[in-house]
Task: inverse folding
């Protein structure tokens, strides 16, 4: 293809149009997110679909969430040990891993893993339904796709990410414990006792609020990109990629604001 | 553009008569970005009639079906489906109306993660007012109507294109809606399968007296429907009697450049002097 042909295929849009499109996307996303919550208070409620999605999102993501947080906990303990040994303070590894995993790494890692696995799955599934007119068929059959497809995914993501984070936190602490015990020769009881006693209400509360927010982000972003798919199978691929990227970036950015907000609220 | 061969209703002044007309388009226009697809079209679908929509690709035929069901919103004009102005209704209100209208999509649009049974039963299961035994009985009855009862436990991916269209028809008719919308039900199918599907549509029209809008590229299918009636005794179509124009409730609507250039019955169509239409039907 000649360079001229290539350039002629590129669509140039003005900064104003670009800004308008982005604002419109934000508006559509906000509307979808609000409707997904509002539908919880309108009939019909699709309980069976919620359970099915919980199975797909929760149990399907369990092994990779547990593995990723376990090894992150282990790596955190290793890295901490290197620094702390200089000050002869390796006994506080349990505290450091505990705070790091419960407040921050557990929820964020679980969110990122679930985003990678499920935001993409939702975007590709709903995107395929869009391009094959299944969403239109559903509407034509008198069923609201927002109630039938979006709300169950949002509910399932929020609830399952909450529990995945709890299990992930435990696995992260376990990973730290293994490193502390086997590689650093630390007493297991000392490690767990330090890890447990250092946690206060605000740490646990912060660690359990975050997955609720992240679960909401994963599902709404995945569904939004899926339901706005355009351009056939190529569009499905594009939506899938964009959903994963957007969900991950949003989780990381929102994490900062949620952390700051909760620190102010909880006074920690 | 050629002059319309028949006088059309004055644009924007199509009267609404819910008792007689199941669908009324009144000066409807819609554009996708800069592409004007429909530009002030008006027509009526009387109760009990089947109207075949013709036009070149991209002329807005499928858009008309989606507009009639409120799946798309027009930029201008009013659309009355079963007496209700769908352009003024909220999405929530439209769901109730859509339950009274059946639609067969161009590529069937069956839910690929559900079995044939669950696809056909979808509407009844969503309504939640019918027992599982009754749903099963009605699903089998609908599948028997399209002669596909043996596919009840299969998935759409296991069916041929023609079988998928027939399952889509079964899904559309399970609640016996008084109005049906067919989007290219015979598109891309072999002649034998096409005739089978046309026969089902004629059966639905003549046995259940349903009204329908049918988008098609195959003129021969519409001519077949306009000249044949369903014979309950033989369970097949047969040629209508002389003067079938009166007896067979079939009409044609042709679109060109976003406007209706013909709206009439078979007799009027074959007698048209319009060169474009004559070329179209030749």
Result:
């Amino acid at each position: 293809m000649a360079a001229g042909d290539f350039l002629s295929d590129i669509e140039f849009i003005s900064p104003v149009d670009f800004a308008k499109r982005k604002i419109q996307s934000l508006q559509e996303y906000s509307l979808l997110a609000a409707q997904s919550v509002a539908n919880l208070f309108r009939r019909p409620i699709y309980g069976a679909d919620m359970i099915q999605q919980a199975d797909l999102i929760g149990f399907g993501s369990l092994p990779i969430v547990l593995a990723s947080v376990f090894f992150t906990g282990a790596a955190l303990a290793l890295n901490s040990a290197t620094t702390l040994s200089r000050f002869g303070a390796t006994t506080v590894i349990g505290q450091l891993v505990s705070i790091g995993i419960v407040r921050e790494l557990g929820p964020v890692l679980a969110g990122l893993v679930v985003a990678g696995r499920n935001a993409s799955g939702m975007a590709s599934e709903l995107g395929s339904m869009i391009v094959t007119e299944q969403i239109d068929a559903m509407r034509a059959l008198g069923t609201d796709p927002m109630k039938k497809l979006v709300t169950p995914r949002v509910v399932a993501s929020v609830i399952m990410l909450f529990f995945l984070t709890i299990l992930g936190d435990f696995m992260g602490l376990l990973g730290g414990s293994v490193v502390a015990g086997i590689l650093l020769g630390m007493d297991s009881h000392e490690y767990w006792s330090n890890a447990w006693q250092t946690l206060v209400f605000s740490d646990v509360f912060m660690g359990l609020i975050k997955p609720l927010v992240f679960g909401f982000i994963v599902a709404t972003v995945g569904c939004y990109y899926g339901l706005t798919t355009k351009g056939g199978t190529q569009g499905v691929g594009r939506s899938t990629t964009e959903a994963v990227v957007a969900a991950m970036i949003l989780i990381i950015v929102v994490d900062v604001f949620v952390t700051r907000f909760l620190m102010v609220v909880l006074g920690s | 553009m050629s002059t319309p061969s028949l006088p059309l209703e004055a644009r924007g002044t199509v009267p609404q008569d819910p008792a007689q007309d199941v669908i009324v388009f009144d000066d409807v226009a819609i554009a996708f970005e800069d592409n004007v697809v429909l530009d002030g079209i008006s027509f009526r679908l009387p109760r009990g009639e089947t109207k075949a929509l013709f036009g070149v690709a991209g002329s807005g035929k499928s858009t008309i079906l989606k507009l009639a069901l409120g799946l798309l919103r027009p930029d201008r004009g009013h659309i009355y489906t079963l007496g209700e102005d769908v352009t003024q209704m909220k999405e929530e209100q439209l769901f109730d109306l859509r339950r009274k209208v059946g639609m067969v999509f161009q590529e069937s649009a069956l839910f690929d993660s559900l079995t044939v049974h669950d696809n056909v039963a979808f509407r009844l299961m969503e309504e939640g007012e019918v027992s599982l035994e009754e749903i099963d009985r009605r699903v089998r009855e609908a599948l028997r109507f399209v002669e596909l009862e043996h596919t009840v436990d299969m998935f759409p991916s296991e069916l041929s294109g023609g079988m998928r269209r027939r399952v889509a028809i079964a899904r559309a008719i399970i609640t016996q809606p008084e109005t049906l919308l067919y989007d290219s039900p015979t598109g891309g199918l072999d002649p034998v399968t096409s005739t089978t599907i046309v026969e089902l549509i004629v059966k639905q029209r003549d046995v259940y007296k349903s009204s329908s809008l049918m988008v098609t590229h195959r003129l021969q299918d519409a001519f077949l429907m306009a000249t044949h009636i369903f014979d309950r005794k033989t369970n097949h179509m047969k040629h209508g009697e002389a003067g079938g124009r009166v007896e067979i409730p079939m009409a044609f609507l042709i679109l060109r450049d976003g406007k209706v250039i013909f709206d009439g019955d078979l007799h009027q169509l074959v007698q048209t002097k319009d060169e474009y239409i004559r070329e179209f039907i030749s």
Summary: The interface with chain A takes residues 66, 69, 71, 91-92, 95-96, 98-99, 101, 103, 105-107, 109-112, 122-123, 126-128, 171 of chain B (CB under 8 Å).
